[in-house]
Amino acid sequence: MDVHRPLTGTAGAAPVVLLWHGRGADERDVLRPLAREAAGLGLLVLVPDWSSDQADGGRTELLASLAQARVIADRFGGDPARFVLAGWSSGGREAVAVATHPGTPAELRPTAAVGIASRYSEPAATTGDAPLDRLAATPSPVPLWLVHGTADDLVDIGHTRKLSAAVPTATLLELPTDHAGVVMTVFSPEAGRCVPATAAGTLEAGRRTAAVLAEAAGLS
Fold it and tell me: Model's pTM, two decimal places?
């Protein structure tokens, strides 16, 4: 698990964000640009590895990281009273599912959740159900923030709009970028993965996603 600490000199305990990457195995490095940007806003950002190729779809690793994050956050001066669970792509579905599921233990439930460029109509590995179906029938127990790129050709923005419509209290941010751009990256065919972006528009989109993480954590 990578630990991205807030800027030196930040007063008091920092809000915590546990940030889950997408379905590619062990890709915490993909979220490094977004995590660093969010840490610069005063957040303690924790980014673990997990693999959807596991027999349980990554459930054990994801839930273990949630429990471990509480310990690590305390060690690095994090504030458990402001604990945001966030994720990108498949990780976003898992984050929203865990944060809103009635079976999530109270001591592990985050204070807010952020889903970034995800599909919510498919069953989550962590909970076994589709968060869209459940949240269409019952209110979310925590505040939700949703981010998606309008030019996303991998996960259509319609998936996020459906969840936003089902949860009227959710905050939705649509950005003029693609699936990788919302997390300040660009897909590299040579590397076979997303790498840090350099284009000004993509960097700005990532900054706005980082600002959503800060807002969800209670920072203005």
Answer: 0.95
